[in-house]
Amino acid sequence: MPKLSPTMEEGQISRWVKNEGDSFDANETLAEVDTDKATMEMTALAGGTLLKILKGAGETAALGEAIAITGQKGEDISSLLASLTSAPAKVSAPAAEAPVTAPVQTSAPAAAAAKTQAAPTVATQSGSPSNGRMIVSPIAARMAAENNLDLKAISGSGPNGRIIKRDIETALAGGGSSSAKAASFTASTVVGASAYREEPTSQMRRVIANRLAESIGPVPTFYLTREIEMDNVLALRKAINASLSDDEKVSVNDILVKAVAMALQKHPFVNASYQDRAIRFYEQADIGVAVAIDEGLITPVVRGANLKGFVEIGAEIRSLAARARDKKLQPEEYTGATFSISNLGMFGIKEFTAIINPPEAGILAVGAATPTPVVRDGQIVVRSIMNITMSCDHRVIDGATGAKFLDTLTKMIEQPAMMLA
Amino acid sequence: MAILTIRDALNQALREELIRDENVFIMGEEVAEYDGAYKVTRGLWKEFGDKRVVDAPITELGFAGLGVGAAMAGLRPVIEFMTWNFSILAADQIINHAAKMLYMSGGEFNIPIVFRGPNGSAYQVSSQHSQALEAMYANFPGLKVVMPSNAADAKGLLKSAIRDDNPVIFMEQERMYGMKSEVPEDEDFTIPLGVADVKREGTDCTIVARSMTVPMALDAAAKIQEEFDVSVEVVDPRTIKPLDIDTIVNSVKKTNRLVVVEESHAFASVGAEISHQIMENAFDYLDAPVKRISTAETPMPYAKNLEALALPSVDKIVDAVKEVCYL
């Protein structure tokens, strides 16, 4: 499978233009391939005969994976075919073997062209021979542990990059202390770089790091910001709370959770999740509410917030937050939200962006509501203005989709009666 | 010390034990008037007579059974199989009777018997006469299995086997009968069963070999030292059961690499057992997977060139050591 668009990683054969047995000239179209961008024509690098189609119409192949064999008419391809079928996962094929590329050229004239195409594929394969897993012989692992060596800094000389005793001995002997030996820190006596202390990473910090790295890496995110006038919702809150006891009173955030849940019901693409091969749409709005605790943060989930009232949501969030701080939450209480809200308004943050918690498609970053001069009907008036910014997973939410959702949400907050509409 | 062939060392051991204990007697095919098919019993019939050295008809099951019965009655038989291949005919007496009697009689009858003879390949005797059967016998509780690799071990271990109060499978090697080495002349020289011997000390790789593969391993070790400056330790368990695993484990803890060489086939072999015990007891010390050299998975070919290819060889051992040492 050749690279037919700058970003493609795999292609799907749309149809074969040439059939098995057909001959072709250089630059003739052999097949049409659906890439991530468009349907592209795959043309021949040199003339020849299409001897065998390995991937039929509708089948998908990764870059560099064999999709067909071309060559001279009548050429014996049985051994090549056997080697292709016996090693379908070419990722482990040693670089020394004849590079197999698409279209595979068995005839000498085109071999050079095939080779140059294959090179990048082979290069990336040899880079991670063990699939990213570190292979260490038991005695090497033991010696590294005893000598406080960081195995990640040592390259293995055994088969498949296995780190063996010799590599540890080399690291220990070669003043390896500078490169491989874990640094030991002491406070600097001269003014320079700041001294610091290290504490072991907590499980929670690791999870946060992994989750967020997972997010900012593969999740293509964009941001949409809106100003929302809060005066009506503040008045509503005041009216509701007037008839509630102290431990029942609702917060702006509780109302926001409800509003977001109601808006999500109207915008299924926002209440969704990008899966590898499908987009998952959720039927109810389970809202994750970010809660800061001593060690970091956790997002307990208000299930079915679209179905619950303000008071019920408020009580639930108080209970979840209290148990979150006591680390009493059950896993199902802080996983599996369909959308999240992070509110830093109480810390005086006016506006910020939050990082999506995959596989959710979005998160709403809520700032502080502050009295702000605004123009209404040609007059400068003071209104309580709150900035919200939604981070959107572009794999599910497009700009307009997100903007429409925020518009609905804004209307629901500015005119709370819209929640009932 | 005298320089003796393994054949003569075994003969000495038998003679000394016949003198030492009048309950000891030898029985087997051609062991008396013919001096033994491989001359291990040479001169013994002349010296000790019909009662002590007995020619048996070609009935392995029969004379193995006579031996077990005699042992129950208080004698100490040494039963010779012309080769261990023929012991398969007597397997019922060995496995079901000799090995089980002490247990099934509630401790009433111990069986102080030695079954001995050549094991493994010879010179082009083909499929039915070239088998190494130690794994089979070592698999059964109640049997000790001994496999010497030089003249001194042959003598010291055979004397211990004859003095042992329980059944011992004593496996020699036809190709080795003529091999010479120093043997202590002391009549009370014995080597205890169940104790391994480090035949060559080394630091970089352990080879565990037994019987015929010990001299091969020693040759390979010398070659590797010379060519690659890699120091190989050769451990000879000498007794397969009970196995002195501690000596092997200690060696592997020192060298971090293990090659097991054996003349039997690989599947469920003694080498497989040693590999497993090393995995259990020295896993954290291994720098490479344990490597085994066994006889090819085929009935032994008759053709000389194919026979040589099927068997372990010095070159195969050198290659295996290079592999585990990442050379």
CATH class of the largest domain in chain A: Alpha Beta
In round numbers, the mean pLDDT of chain B is 97
Outline of chain B? globular
Specify the number of helices of chain B: 12
Oligomer: heterodimer
Q: What's the CATH architecture of the largest domain in chain A?
A: 2-Layer Sandwich
Query: Rg of chain B from C-alpha positions?
Result: 19 Å
Question: How many discrete domains of chain A?
Answer: 3
Sum this structure up briefly.
With 421 residues, chain A is of the alpha+beta class.
Explain this structure:
The complex is a heterodimer of chains A (421) and B (327). Chain A is α+β, with helices and mostly antiparallel strands. Chain A folds into three domains: 10-127, RNA polymerase II/Efflux pump adaptor protein, barrel-sandwich hybrid domain (OB fold (Dihydrolipoamide Acetyltransferase, E2P)); 138-198, no CATH class; 204-420, Chloramphenicol Acetyltransferase, CATH 3.30.559. Chain A is built from ten helices and 18 strands. A six-stranded mixed beta sheet of chain A has the order 9-18-17-16-12-15. A four-stranded antiparallel beta sheet of chain A has the order 4-3-1-6, with no helix packed on it. In chain A, strands 2-5-7-8 form a four-stranded mixed beta sheet. Chain A is flat. Residues 87-130 and 176-198 of chain A have low confidence and may be disordered. Chain B has two domains: 2-183, Thiamin diphosphate (ThDP)-binding fold, Pyr/PP domains (Rossmann fold, 3-Layer(aba) Sandwich), CATH 3.40.50; 197-324, 3-Layer(aba) Sandwich (Rossmann fold). At the A-B interface, helix 3 of A face loops of B.
Write the layout of secondary structure elements.
The complex is a heterodimer of chains A (421) and B (327).
Chain A: E1 10-16, E2 23-24, E3 29-34, E4 39-43, E5 48-53, E6 60-62, E7 68-71, H1 78-86, E8 104-105, H2 108-127, H3 138-146, H4 165-173, H5 203-216, E9 221-229, H6 231-242, H7 252-266, E10 272-274, E11 279-281, E12 287-289, E13 291-293, E14 296-298, E15 301-302, H8 310-325, H9 331-334, E16 339-343, E17 362-376, E18 379-393, H10 399-414
Parallel strand pairs in A: 7-8, 12-16, 16-17
Antiparallel strand pairs in A: 1-3, 1-6, 2-5, 3-4, 5-7, 9-18, 10-11, 12-15, 13-14, 17-18
Helix pairs in contact in A: 3-4, 7-8, 7-10
Chain B: E1 2-5, H1 6-20, E2 24-28, H2 44-48, E3 53-55, H3 60-72, E4 76-80, H4 91-98, H5 101-104, E5 114-118, H6 134-138, E6 144-146, H7 151-163, E7 168-172, E8 180-183, E9 197-200, E10 205-209, H8 213-228, E11 232-236, E12 239-241, H9 245-255, E13 258-265, H10 270-282, E14 291-295, H11 304-310, H12 314-324
Parallel strand pairs in B: 2-3, 2-4, 4-5, 5-7, 6-7, 10-11, 10-13, 13-14
Antiparallel strand pairs in B: 1-8, 6-12, 9-11
Helix pairs in contact in B: 1-7, 3-4, 8-12, 9-10
